[in-house]
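Recap from last week: sequence in, structure out.
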Amino acid sequence: MTSAAITASPRRGVLRDPVLLLPVAVAAGLAIGWLGVHEGVPGARVAADLALSWALVAASVVMLERPRWRRASWLLAATAFALLGADLEWASSHALWTLGFVIEGLWAAFLVQLVLTFPEGRPWSRAARIAIVCAYAVTFGGQLVGAFVVPDGRDALSVAPHASFAHTVDRAQEISGVAVALVVLFLVVQRLRALRGPARRAQAPLLMAAAVSVPTGVVWLGWAIANDAGTSTLGTIDRAVAVSLPLGVVAGIVWSRLRRPEASELVVELRTEAAAGMRERLARALGDPTLEVAYRLGDGRFVDATGRPIELPQGADRAVTAVTAGGEEVAALVHDPALLDEPALVESVRATAGLVLENERLAAEVRSQLAEVRASRGRIVAAADAERRRIERNLHDGAQQRLVTVSVALGLEASRADAAASDVLSRAQDEVEQAIAELRELARGIHPTLLRDEGLEAAVEALARRTPLPVTVSGTTRDRLADPVELAAYFVVSEALTNVVKHASASEALVLLEREPDALRVTVTDDGVGGASVTADSGLAGLRDRLEALDATIVIESEPRQGTTVCAEIPCGS
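Predicted structure tokens:
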């Protein structure tokens, strides 16, 4: 696609096709090199400048494969031409000499901006932005001020030559340059320590090169300050060391390319049962420990591996890469944006993982449906419990109170009536009292008031007292628990004791309440005939359904003639 576009547009200029910078840089470098040799400049200095400028341009062209690095690419190219422009000081023309003098240190400011904005072209922080501004002020601003006062006949801008003032400007530039360099070094080291995952892989080579180059520049400026004069040898060494910066950019790209074969091994690893989870394997292949996998469901929602719904991030601090299989999006990889700088690596992993992620997506969809079923069942149980409470309140506050009123009225009438009528009224009162007792028992079975008012332990002890055989209650819940947990535990004890009375022929029973950090264990044991089982229409079956809605478990051990143990474990949090 790219080559076709270039062929179809023969008018492309340097700004449209940065590859053309290469021949332009080579031609400009050769011209500057010839100028330096003609003017007697040491060959080492000429070679260092040409090597640095050509390396910068070459690195800028290599960076074109990473769209997010385009600003950094142009900075590299600008640095190369600023360096060659500074060498115009070798020219005999006054205009060219003045231009070279004014932009003498501009290439260093460009490098500061490159390092402190790499790789996306935006300053890392406010301190980085200030350091960049200061770098331009020291290099370009200081040189421009000096151009007006330098007592040199070649300076076309010298309007007020003053040797002492020009010397002061030089010293101020050198001291300020050292300060800026130290700030840059601090920011670079801080950045290196903070980098993780793919960002470190892409950026660390350049930053390490900067950490080496900056001290060299400090030594050069320090020598000039100490000796009140510069030295061409240290300047040459500084440029030679600076070549490591474009090499660092290329090294970061090469490093990511060398990792691509690791992605091909993912095919075997993904099919190995002993391998780690899908997310861990993909994270290892991409070198991004923060990687997340979101599976796309048929309705467009995304869920994680456990089936829980998740939202894809929208901010710039996370990137999303779609994974397709058979032309359909099956998942999305949420990862560090630095991975966008390694498109080939991401593409190889994405293509390799597509089919396997399709299977994982189906499993995640099943888990999501299961979670929805569980949530729906929990809502049904909660609604049923709420209805139980409403019915219990209505019975207690309505029908029961009316029956109590009737009973009192019958008693009063019986006390005033003759013997025959009193006997009839007394029998009627007894029937009403029996109805009240039965109504209270019914209300207690629907939703025990004592459980709501005083808690699980009090309700269980009351239940044990009403059971027509000895029941020992031990253990404690320590504190009140959530209503669904207490109600489920109460019904476990109630149903178990009911079965003991009806079927076990037991002489005694034991109820044990055990509170653990994240669960409540309820155990009911009897010494009856055993042989209990869960049948489709039994109370234990309904109890099991209630417990499963809370992600609780129930285990029944009932060997013949060895008694029965019913143990339920209900999650309740810490």
